[in-house]
Automatic annotation (TrEMBL):
One term of GO molecular function: phosphoric diester hydrolase activity
Record-linked PROSITE patterns: GP_PDE
BP term (GO), one: lipid metabolic process
InterPro entries to which the protein is assigned, alphabetical: GP_PDE_dom, PLC-like_Pdiesterase_TIM-brl
Annotated protein name in UniProt: Glycerophosphodiester phosphodiesterase
CDD domains: GDPD_TtGDE_like
GP-PDE domain sequence ranges: 3-238
């Protein structure tokens, strides 16, 4: 089985993360999957960004949840990465999904609900209502560091695949896995390497697998996938194994 290469926040290593250019690049580089993060704006729009605040990657400051979509759209989300990306905007979930549909993407779409630091009221219902309306040819995998979010999502969509995200596996995480809501583990690669842990029934997709050594480690063990900032480089390494 060929390990899937999943682009972390798009091709984050070479494009401004979680922007349309980063997702376009991931597709161009032949990524088997795309990972991204969703939050909610003050006026209830589903917003694609990693952090809870806009400070690190945009021209603005403050929390996503304290801004309207119109306010978020005025920010520049590209120039932090390089002047050539000046004018790149924060995308909505709809814009990302429509891009994947337009590009005829048929891989894995891993949507992480960023609900571990802020509890956005109703985000699970909104994500699931929106995604269920779309006619997509890609496979959806929902993940979160916040198990309660996955429980809610699973109650709404029991047939979709769920992944448990963790840095360190706790007793609770193991119990949660046994609940059978989650089929996949998306652990920190450092945890995987420290524990050399591998359960045959769990689809393992560690993050963030960026070094050649970590990539080879995962490819040789035939993990289901890796989540990487460099899908292009990962493809070359996978081919050479
Ligand atoms: O989904 C894997 C990875 O994205 C989780 O960590 O902080 O990059 O969202 P983070
Ligand atoms: Ca993420």
């Amino acid at each position: 089985m060929l390990t899937k290469i999943i682009a972390h926040r798009g091709s984050k290593g070479i494009r401004p993360e979680n922007t349309l250019p980063a997702f376009e690049k991931a597709i161009e580089e032949g990524a088997d999957g795309i990972e991204t993060d969703v939050h909610m704006s003050k006026d209830g729009h589903l917003i694609i960004m990693h952090d809870e605040t806009v400070d690190r990657t945009t021209s603005g400051t403050g929390r996503i949840y304290d801004k309207t979509l119109m306010e978020l759209k005025q920010l520049d989300a590209g120039s932090y990465f390089g002047y050539e990306y000046l004018g790149t905007r924060i995308p909505t979930l709809n814009e990302v999904v429509q891009l994947l549909i337009k590009k005829k993407f048929t891989g894995l779409f891993n949507l992480e609900l960023k609900t571990d630091k802020i509890q956005y009221p109703g985000i699970e219902e909104k994500v699931s209502a929106y995604m269920n309306q779309q006619k997509v040819s890609f496979q959806i995998v929902y993940s979160s560091f916040h198990p309660q979010s996955l429980v809610k999502m699973h109650a709404l969509n029991p047939s979709i695949e769920y992944a448990s995200l963790f840095k360190v596996q706790t007793k609770f995480a193991r119990k949660f896995y046994r609940s059978r809501i989650v089929k996949d583990w998306h652990p920190d690669i450092r945890w995987v390497r420290a524990h050399r842990f591998f359960l045959p029934h769990v689809q393992l997709r560690p993050w963030t697998v960026n070094s050649s050594e970590d990539m080879r480690y995962c490819f040789k063990r035939h993990f289901d996938g890796i989540i990487t900032d460099y899908p292009g480089r990962a493809g070359i390494i996978r081919q050479a194994i």
